[in-house]
Amino acid sequence: IYFLIFILFIPVLGLLENKLLNNH
Question: Does Mitochondrion show up as a keyword for this record (predicted)?
Answer without folding.
Answer: yes
